[in-house]
Specification:
mainly beta; Immunoglobulin-like; 4-stranded mixed beta sheet; 1 helix; 14 strands; about 40% strand; elongated; binds copper (II) ion
Length: about 160
């Protein structure tokens, strides 16, 4: 947000990892001369922070401990996986039910496990994954990885890190 009269930046607005539109509105009356304090505009998908690991951006929608589970619902949306990081036991097998509410075609790929599956708009797919013996294994949407639609399987106490995929 820029104060033209004073030529100063008065606020910055978080827009998520992939802003697609800008709306410009004229203001009139009091609002034109005394701008209200700027609230952070909500990113379309709520509060997501991006982190970068090994040159790959992750739209971070949290970490889930799945060590006691055999099955997990994973949400795929524009443009993230939620949860983003799954913590499992080394070698653990897990069935992921990947569900999309989006009207965009998404995908889940995990090359090391031979997984490359499209998720149709408003559809779901099921994939079986195996956690690595140690470290992390990355998965991604092959269409939107560059927009942050990536995630990782974390074995044991491994922290998210620059990953093999
Ligand atoms: Cu996608």
């Amino acid at each position: 947000m820029v104060d033209l009269a004073n030529r100063a930046v008065t606020a910055t607005i978080a827009v998520g990892s992939a802003p697609r539109k800008i709306a410009v509105q004229p203001v009139s009356g009091a609002a034109a001369t005394t701008p209200a304090p700027m609230r952070a505009a909500g990113a379309p998908s709520g509060t997501s922070k991006s982190i970068t690991l090994g040159g790959v951006t992750y739209a971070d929608h949290g970490t889930k401990d799945v060590r006691t589970r055999a099955r997990l619902e994973l949400e795929a949306d524009d443009y993230y996986f939620s949860p983003t990081f799954l913590r499992g036991k080394p070698g653990q097998k897990l069935t992921l039910v990947v569900e999309s509410e989006a009207s965009t075609l998404h995908n889940i790929s995990l090359p090391a496990l031979g997984i490359d599956k499209d998720i149709p708009p408003k559809g779901k797919v099921q994939v079986d994954v195996t956690f690595p013996a140690s470290g992390v294994l990355a998965f991604s949407c092959k269409f939107h990885g560059p927009l942050g639609m990536n995630g990782q399987l974390l074995a044991g106490d491994a922290a998210p890190s620059g990953a093999r995929s």
